[in-house]
Design brief:
single chain, about 280 residues, mainly alpha, 10 helices, globular, DUF7847, DUF7847 domain-containing protein, membrane, transmembrane helix, transmembrane
Length: about 280
């Protein structure tokens, strides 16, 4: 089945609209609250990221909280995995309750952690391969006296590395729907299934996500500017952090709901279960 951007968007939004109250509960707990807590746990760092921060000062702040920040991010990612999986399950054909969806999210957690580790290993392998290629090419070009050419080739290879990583991300994008909706608990098999589903559609899927990212970037900049003005009215302190945390957390929750709806729609379309599953969702 061909990948249709318009169909993916319209059905994904329809899924979110049909389940928005339940999705909002899950997104609020698993996305909004962790987003707000970032501003409570690391107020100086988060406010320092606003505007045009001084790189040296920012690096110093990161250094001061590096250990606790890493621990928080790890737990937040694991916590959010459960939320994402539950929201995807909630919009699937089986129509679970919120409690059932959350239990499913917890049950899928080991598989999703395995998938995450596989992705990290894949990115590391890609990075190592391209670094080796870059080093060899730069060495050869340097020997023949092409220092400027070596620098240009280094930039080209760095761009190629980003493209390859984005390509891999696109091919992995349906892993969570496969785990949640097909009951696949083997991380390798889940990744293979996502790779098969995205197949020849990877370029169109990449274009779809690129358009979504551009729209998200524009909207987030506008909302961030408004939130910054509101926060500045409080003159700093905890009130400012609460405003910024609430704004960013709410935006993250809404984006997560829409993303999950789009992933379910994309999965149903490429797996050939779109019409039947969507009709069950609205029954």
């Amino acid at each position: 089945m061909n990948f249709d951007m318009n169909r993916t968007w319209s059905q994904g939004v329809a899924l979110v609209q049909a389940n928005w109250q339940l999705l909002a509960v899950i997104a609020g707990i698993f996305l909004l609250i962790p987003g707000m807590l970032m501003y409570v746990a690391f107020p100086d760092l988060m406010t320092g990221l606003q505007g045009n921060p001084d790189p040296d000062r920012l690096a110093a702040m990161f250094g001061e909280v590096a250990g606790s920040l890493v621990i928080y991010v790890i737990f937040a990612v694991i916590f959010q995995m459960i939320g994402y999986t539950a929201m995807i399950a909630l919009m699937g054909a089986d129509r679970p309750t919120v409690g059932e969806a959350l239990r499913l999210g917890a049950q899928c957690l080991p598989t999703l952690i395995g998938v995450l580790l596989l992705m990290i290993l894949a990115y590391i392998a890609i990075g190592i391969a391209l670094v080796i290629v870059t080093g060899l090419v730069s060495a050869v070009v340097g020997l023949i006296g092409g220092g400027a050419l070596a620098a240009v080739l280094g930039v080209i290879i760095a761009i190629a590395m980003m493209v390859v990583m984005l390509y891999v991300s696109v091919r992995f994008c349906l892993t969570t729907p496969v785990v949640a909706l097909e009951g696949q608990r083997n991380p390798v098999a889940a990744v293979k299934r996502s790779w098969t589903l995205t197949g020849s559609h990877s370029r169109r899927i990449f274009g779809f996500f690129a358009l979504l990212f551009i729209a998200y970037l524009v909207i987030s900049l506008l909302i961030g500017a408004v939130a910054g003005l509101l926060a500045s009215a409080f003159g700093g302190g905890s009130a400012t952090n609460i405003v910024l945390g609430l704004t960013n957390g709410a935006m993250g929750a809404v984006v997560a709901m829409i993303l999950c709806g789009l992933l379910v729609s994309m999965y149903q379309q490429l797996a050939g279960s779109g019409s039947e599953s969507l009709s069950k969702t609205f029954d």
